[in-house]
Amino acid sequence: MVARRKVAVVGVALSDCGRVDDVTPYALHAQAARRALADAGLDRSLIDGFASAGLGTLAPVEVAAHLGLRPTWVDSTSVGGSTWEVMAAHAADAVAAGHARAVLLAYGSTARADVRAGRRTGTLSFGSRGPAQFEVPYGHTLIAKYAMAARRHMIEYGTTIEQLAQVAVQARANAALNPEALFRTPVTVDEVAAGPMIADPFTKLHCCVRSDGGAAVLLVAEEYVRDCRTRPVWVLGSGEAVSHASMSDWPDFTVSPAAVSGRLAFARAGVRPSEIDVAELYDAFTYMTLVTLEDLGFCAKGEGGAFVGGDRLLVRGGALPVNTDGGGLSAQHPGMRGLFLLVEAVRQLRGECGDRQVRRADGSLPRLAVASGTGGWFCSSGTVVLGSG
Predict the structure, then answer these.
(1) In what residue span(s) does the Thiolase C-terminal domain sit (predicted)?
(2) What are the phi and psi torsion angles at 338 (to 5°)?
(3) Which of 87, 108, 313, 331 is the most exposed place for a label (fewest CB within 10 A)?
(4) Dihedrals phi, psi of 273, to nearest 5 degrees
C-alpha cells in the first residue's frame, strides 16, 4: 500500500469581483486560475487534476479546455454552495492517495451582469422536476425554504430577528475592512429591520448580495511544497453530508447537514471547535451562519442567537471571527460561493489580509481555520479544516 501523502493548499486567488460587466464566466475562471498559479509560483504543467462545476454542459471538460489543461483526474460534483468544500475534500484524497500531484479548483460566474443584461432572471427556484414538483405549485421559492427554517428556529428556541440581524451587521463591519468587498458601508440592526421584506422573516439585508466573480484554489502533494513561493496551508481533515431532497424530507429544520460534515472534519483533523481561530461559513442568509455555528459545535443547539451577539464574529475583537472578508452578505456572492471561503481561510492563515487580518490573543497569526459550505436548501454540506503548522 502506498503511504498517504500530506496535502497543502499553495495557491489561492480571486478574479475581478463585484461589478464585472464586460467579461465572460470563462474569462473569470481563467483570470482566477492564472492568479492562483502565480500565487503558488508553480507552472501550469504540474497540474494533472481539475475540478469545476456550474458552467457549460460538461464543466470540467469545457473549462479545462479553455484553460489549456488536460487533466487525468477530474471532479464535477455539484451540490450547490457546498460544492467547493466537497471538491476540496475529494481533491485532497486524490492527491494523498497518489492519483494526482496537483489539483486546481476553479469557478467563475457573471450572475449579476447576466441579470442586468437580461440574459437570465433571479434564481427563485431550481425548477419543478423530481421532488420539487410537490413544492413549486405552492410558491415555495428557494429563499422561502431558508426563511421557513429560520422561523422554525425562532419558534423552537426563542431566537429573535434582532439576533439574526446581528449576523448581517457584523458581516458588514468585516467587509468595511476589505477593499474587495462589494458593500462596505456599516449598517445597524434597525437598518436591517427597516429594509424591504423578501421572505418573512428576512428583509433585504438578511440576504446575500448578487455579484460577479471567480476564485481558484491549488492543492499539491507535500513534495511540491518546497517549490512554492507561498507558505503552505495543510488540509487537516474534511467531511461531507447530504440530508434531504425536499423540505418534507427534512426531519428538523433547526439542524443542518453541517452537524455531520463538521463532526467528521474535526474528528479527522484531530482538533476541536474550540481550537479554531477563524471560521468561514456559507451565508446566503443570516440564519445559515447562526445554525452552522451551532451544528459545527461552536455553541449548543438553540444557543446560536445569544452566541452571535456581543460582536463575537468581528475581525477586530471578536472571540470567533467569522466571514472575515464580509461573507456573501456583504463581500461577494456570484452563485456557488464555497470556493471563496477556502480562499479567505488560506489568506488568513498566511497572514495576508491587511486590515482584516485576524490575530490570536498573543498577537500571532491564526493557526487553524474551518471552511464550511452549505448547498441547495440546507440539503448538503462540506467542511474542511485547515492548518498553518
Answers:
(1) 239-387
(2) -55, -35
(3) 313
(4) -55, -35
Q: What is the pLDDT of residue 356?
A: 98
Q: pLDDT class for 1, splitting at 50, 70, 90? A: very low
> What 8-state DSSP symbol labels residue 133?
G
Closest listed residue to residue 231, CA positions, set 5, 41, 35:
41
Q: Which residues are within 8 A (CB) of 341 and not within 5 positions of it... i.e. 6 or more apart?
A: 84, 85, 280, 281, 282, 371, 372, 373
Using the Cα atoms of residue 54, residue 145, residue 384 and residue 370 in order, give the sign of their dihedral: positive
Q: What average pLDDT is seen over the chain?
A: 94
- The answer to whether the CB of 369 falls within 8 A of the CB of 386 is yes
DSSP state of 376: T
Alpha helices (H) in 21-160, listed in sequence order: 25-40, 59-67, 83-96, 111-116, 142-157
Q: Return the DSSP state at 285.
A: B
| Distance between CA atoms of residues 186 and 174, nearest Å | 9
**CA-based angle 163:169:175, to the nearest 5?**
145
Inter-CA distances, 225 with 4, 8, 194, 230, Å: 16, 7, 50, 8
